[in-house]
């Protein structure tokens, strides 16, 4: 199983480490040639700054091919900024509020249930949350009344950072999606 | 500061990796930086080249100016305080800055003590010229490190020297036997536990950026190839001919720092780079401040 990890900016190396720890192969995607090499069973869009990644996706001509691949069913998992990009440009039917918890002093860690798989540690860094969902979007986690994880068919998104906690539950869920 | 908060602060730095943090002096520049792909901005009234030219005492920026920049952009906003000036830091925490840079670019307020950064909830980034400095700042509570470089010169030599020194010292530490680490800790002037951690992981326990003298896409890529996890650009952007274009080119060069073909394309027609001054032409070495 080969998972591409978008490596334009942000916390991509943490995802790669987590995926490799779970026995998947992980490959950095930095430019069209990396994408064109093909052979990917899934894609991770990491946390970072969504403005930076959004701009680079367009200018490096990765946005369209990634959008097309997701529309064609490629499993994709976005965290934090990745959630924002999925909702704004890549087909996730969700309204997202950016910097929903304010500045860095509003960043926090908590524990909550994920997809009925039990309570897991969740780290929110200047995080967004989901304000509204379209039909076909399944809510997987709620913290303080706000949606922080959701799935729409082949698209998985969390506003928190499972790659920073050492808990593999969300990545396992994603790899299950890829394997299905 | 509890351990949980410190982890969250280290985590924010992790999300800045692979990015470019740009010095900006007003909301207009901040907007240009954000549009060009900056992952954060550093708000300061005068960029280092102008601080150097003006001379005199250089202090924390006007909070009104910083708030203006906070309103202008959605990315994290950082600001500088003088080394040891914990009240300037309290002020920046009060206006909810995202990261404080305890910076040698400003005039030091204390020639012995750095700020006890563990007393704050907001994160700190500090400059370092070598591993000992980096680890002493981390022991004081810094959750991100950058090279000092020589600010406001447009000369990359010091950032290169500091990055090579830090990375080389980490490699040397990783090669040491367990019983040699006690002496290493003594030489570095830091606690044994921190030294053990660096030796076993082969890296700093926090994110490490390059700063000081970055003026071109090639400079930025050079620092990334030397092991930086991201880049601060101070005077290099808004002291150049076409700030927006140069800023965007540096952002792309940091993402694809190993692709010489792409960096060649990015380096074309950027207009005039900041003129800069060579290290040996200047009297004031800011990097010497705060050790």
Layout of SSEs?
The complex is a heterodimer of chains A (180) and B (291).
Chain A: E1 2-6, H1 12-21, E2 25-29, H2 32-36, E3 42-45, H3 50-59, H4 63-71, E4 76-79, H5 81-89, E5 94-97, E6 108-113, E7 119-124, E8 129-133, E9 138-143, E10 146-152, E11 155-158, H6 169-179
Parallel strand pairs in A: 1-2, 1-3, 3-4, 4-11
Antiparallel strand pairs in A: 5-8, 6-7, 9-10, 10-11
Helix pairs in contact in A: 3-5
Chain B: H1 3-16, E1 20-24, H2 27-36, E2 40-43, H3 48-54, H4 63-72, E3 77-82, H5 86-94, E4 99-103, E5 124-128, H6 131-139, E6 144-147, H7 157-174, H8 181-188, H9 192-201, E7 207-209, H10 217-225, E8 231-233, H11 235-238, H12 243-255, H13 260-266
Parallel strand pairs in B: 1-2, 1-8, 2-3, 3-4, 4-5, 5-6, 6-7
Helix pairs in contact in B: 2-4, 2-12, 7-9, 8-9, 10-12
Number of strands of chain A: 11
- Rg of chain A, rounded, reads 15 Å
Helix content of chain A: 25-40%
Low-confidence stretches of chain B: none
Number of helical stretches of at least 4 residues of chain A:
6
CATH architecture of chain A: 3-Layer(aba) Sandwich
N-to-C series of helices and strands of chain B:
HEHEHHEHEEHEHHHEHEHHH
Strand content of chain A: 25-35%
- Total DSSP helices of chain B: 13
Which percent bin holds the helix content of chain B? Answer: 40-55%
